[in-house]
Write a structure and sequence with these properties.
Elements lengths: L1 H12 L9 E2 L5 E2 L8 H11 L2 H8 L6 H12 L1 E2 L14 E3 L2 E3 L3 E3 L12 H12 L4 E2 L7 H7 L5 E4 L5 H13 L4 E5 L9 H5 L10 H8 L2 H9 L17 H8 L9 H10 L3 E7 L2 H9 L4 E4 L13 H12 L4 E4 L6 H9 L4 E4 L1 H32 L13 E2 L1
Parallel strand pairs: 6-13, 7-8, 8-9, 9-10, 10-11, 11-12, 12-13
Antiparallel strand pairs: 1-2, 3-14, 4-5
Helix pairs in contact: 1-16, 2-16, 5-16, 13-14, 15-16
The structure holds flavin mononucleotide (FMN).
Length: about 400
């Protein structure tokens, strides 16, 4: 791992630093952005410098007053890892199994819709970095590249995330395409019965259809590399373009798709998906123990405990707070993956210590993607792995699959 990191590190290091602007990182620290990503926060600084501010806000923001967004971080920070000094570990095993596949560490890349607005060729860059590192990648229904193009460009299977349509024919067409591509699992997102209102986007005028403001144009001109890429190849919604009758540009397909998504996904919908989908069925967006039990009863093989990164129900619990009760409700045999707020290997270990089998990361990898494409995603993964290894060493944890019972103090 470290050899690969060294070369990526050199590439990241070759990016020139043009200004010494300061930015607030998680935890309130103010830093000058360095030429290299020494920790995950530096990738965020670099992403902010690459993206127009409205696009950075779209990535960063949560719903409404962002109470849940903040809670995700606060509740993770409140937990303490139990430092152990006599159970010294010479080398740690980070390898495990996620969604039935070998994974180099208990982390997978979350589905991120519209990721082409952060970097051209985003899904291909992210999927390649994940494959090279040996962790699962999940492609969003709302990816810019169609799943077939991602599969052709990446020599590794990926999971497909499904936003359920009212029209079952579209769902079954999407699932058949995913099956033909040998996707090992489908991730059905359940927490978007209505779309969270994101105040930052409203303030920035980032609405569909976009009414271009002078500030948008100015913001984009201040990020010429981003603007150049955008003009060169405007992203669309590749998976959905075949079903949208009126053209394939982003605005047209988005306006076509939005009213066609199902609101609440019912138990009957999930049963139907279980019936037609033969491989791993993962449900995403569970935050309640009874819902988790019902999902398992309906045939889910794995559950992603998620509040959509604080982008849906504002005021909802953090995911880490709900994890112990959900683990207790479903028992030890159900795979539980946690997301929302995971920014470091330390966060990952806390989630494992409270009963998760692994974590999805969203923004933590998109910062790297926006900053440096595939190299940046690889750097994000490598940094998380280094932190996880460090945390395991200092807590006397030799293996992610055999954790000490007192790993996390509450
Ligand atoms: C810009 C953005 C786009 C997202 N798009 C999707 C999506 O298409 N499908 C989905 O299930 N979740 C989507 N999510 C939620 C993520 O999959 C994941 O649950 C969330 O990012 C986890 O929180 P984190 O960013 O704090 O790691 C998106 C999140 C962000 C930030």
């Amino acid at each position: 791992m470290s050899e690969r990191f060294d070369s990526q590190f050199a590439e990241v290091a070759s990016e020139p630093v043009t200004s010494l602007d300061t930015h607030e990182l998680r935890g309130g620290a103010m830093v000058k952005p360095p030429a290299v990503a020494l920790h995950p926060g530096h990738l965020k600084v670099a992403a902010r410098r690459r993206l127009p501010s409205v696009i950075f806000d779209f990535l960063e923001g949560g719903s409404n007053d962002e109470v849940t967004l903040a809670r995700n971080f606060a509740d993770l920070d409140e937990l303490r890892l139990n430092q152990r000094v006599f159970d010294h570990v010479a080398s740690c095993n980070l390898g495990t199994t996620l969604f039935g596949q070998r994974a180099a560490m208990p982390v997978a890349l979350a589905p991120i819709g519209l990721s082409g607005v952060f970097h051209p060729g985003a899904e291909i860059h992210a999927a390649r970095a994940a494959a090279a590192f040996g962790v699962p990648y999940c492609l969003s229904t709302l990816s810019n590249y169609p799943m077939e193009e991602v599969a052709a460009a990446v020599n590794a299977p990926f999971l497909f995330q499904l936003y359920v349509f009212k029209d079952r024919a579209i769902n079954s067409a999407l699932l058949q395409r995913a099956e033909r591509l040998n996707c090992p699992g489908v991730v059905v997102t359940l927490d978007t019965a209505v779309q969270g209102r994101r105040n930052r986007d409203l303030d920035n005028g980032l609405v569909v259809p976009l009414k271009v403001r002078p500030s948008h144009v100015l913001g984009m001109m201040r990020r010429p590399r981003w603007l150049f890429n955008w003009l060169l190849k405007k992203p669309t919604l590749g998976n959905l373009a075949p079903y949208s009758p009126d053209g394939s540009d982003l605005a047209t397909v988005s306006s076509w798709a939005e009213p066609r998504f199902k609101g609440a996904v019912s138990a009957a919908d999930l049963e139907w998906i279980r019936h037609i989908w033969p491989r791993k069925l993962v449900v995403k967006g569970i935050l309640d123990a009874e819902d988790a039990k019902l999902a398992v009863k309906l045939g889910a093989d794995a559950i992603v405990i998620s509040n959509h990164g604080g982008r849906q129900l504002d005021g909802a619990s953090s995911t880490i707070k709900m994890l112990p009760a959900i683990r207790e409700a479903v028992g030890d045999d159900v795979e539980l993956i946690l997301d929302s707020g995971i920014r470091s290997g330390f966060d990952v270990l806390k989630a494992l210590g409270l009963g998760a089998n692994g974590c999805l990361v969203g923004r933590a990898y998109v910062y790297g993607l926006a900053a440096h494409g595939e190299t940046g995603v690889s750097a994000a993964l490598e940094l998380i792995a280094q932190e996880l290894d460090e945390a395991m060493t200092l807590t006397g944890t030799p293996d992610v699959n055999a954790l000490p019972s007192d790993l996390v103090l509450r």
